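User: My instructor asked us to take a sequence, write out its structure as tokens, and then describe one feature of it. I'm not sure where to start. Here is the sequence I was given:
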Amino acid sequence: MHPISESVADLTRRELLGRTSLGLGGVALAELLQGSSASANERPLLPHFAPRAKRVIYLFQNGAPTHVDLFDFKPELQRLHGKPLPAGFSEGKRFSTMTGNADGKLMLAPVEPFRQRGDSGAWVSDFLPHTAGIADRLCFIRSMHTDAVNHAPAIQLLLSGAQIPGRPTMGAWATWGLGSETETLPAFVVMTSVTKNTTCGQIFYDFYWGNGFLPSRFQGVKFRGSGDPVLYIRNPSGMTSTMKRAWLDDIARINELKLRESGDPETASRTAQYEMAFRMQTSVPELTDFSSETQQTLDMYGPGVAEPGTFAHNCLLARRLVERGTRFVQLMHAGWDQHNSITTELYSQCRDTDQPSAALVRDLDRLGLLDETLVIWGGEFGRTPFIQGDLGNRPRWGRDHHPYAFTIWMAGGGIRPGMNWGASDELGFNAVENRVHVHDLQATVLHQLGFDHERLTYRFQGRQFRLTDVHGHVVQEILS
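Assistant: Let's start with the prediction itself. The structure tokens for your sequence are:
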């Protein structure tokens, strides 16, 4: 006998009645609260308290933007330019193998000038004029820090709570907990882009949007940057929509029989994904058709908006997705890993991402969506305040990975605007004031979605898992 069937057969009458009553009550409650989007087999959880945000757009900057050149102004770096790193800063610190021992490394001043912006007085570099223009709508966290010194482990830690692949990512947790607001588009969508002709693009691993041990329908759906955004949603040659509908109905009946026999939730997931793909045959072409957007809106996102696969195009798609009910949109843009191109490729990287990022915030605000949409901008760590390369060869200046201090910004979704939280030391080397670990960021995001991060758990292999592992504190001070 199958182990699941054997377990059911061994139930006592008391256990059977107890489980049945809870199950029927749960199904009824889920149906009342979630409508037709709820599944009897995988019911969305209720938020633990009233959420401030209904959805998230994560503008993830792969490769780690240089905080000391973009957001974290340190006059001391200018004074010490070309001089060795002062004693004590690198003691006990681990760096990538490209740096090894940081002792004796030469300090590097910011490449472009910084200015204080808006009423908040936030320091933003001239590299980012459009972001500077919305500084009063943003909350800058300048005291971020993490545990990993290389890209994949650091990205995985930030998005899933663990450096090793296999855990559910933030978007999977959010959609598993909240369910979906739409039946015609995925609840969790991922788009990737990279600056053209960059020498420092990063690999986009599928586990960056993985479901881990959650049912597979909570994995992020990746939209491609060329051709059909989603593969295999077009009908094959010779198959009509009526034929496809009948074919899916037959498969659903077979899967239902299999589900009753095995109790495997992945069987239900397959049926749900087939149905989603069928509905996306109509919803995706409408989503990706920008003809209904005004020229003013298109111009706001910048010249790349009309080109599929660009960051600008993906930003406008992200806005259209959340308009239509998608819960979590993860935009990942590579090219920030500037080991030897701070004075060259950082300009093109900022040119590709600055205007669309600011436009997205403005557009969401214009449509009344920003209050309930949490926008996050940032990478997996920062860059070293000291130089990587030869100080005498300016076109090849670079900075190495730096996990001990970096900056992100957040907007909307119940986050206080016009705020600067936390600080690094005088060199931008260590986060020293109101330090925020990546687990604290995760806890805060879940809190804004209505979840107590310690209670949003999933039992797997004999223990309860959560996004924040056994860490994390909500940063209450940045909440409005």
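For the description part of your assignment, you could build on this observation: Residues 235-287 form one domain. Try explaining in your own words what that tells you about the chain.
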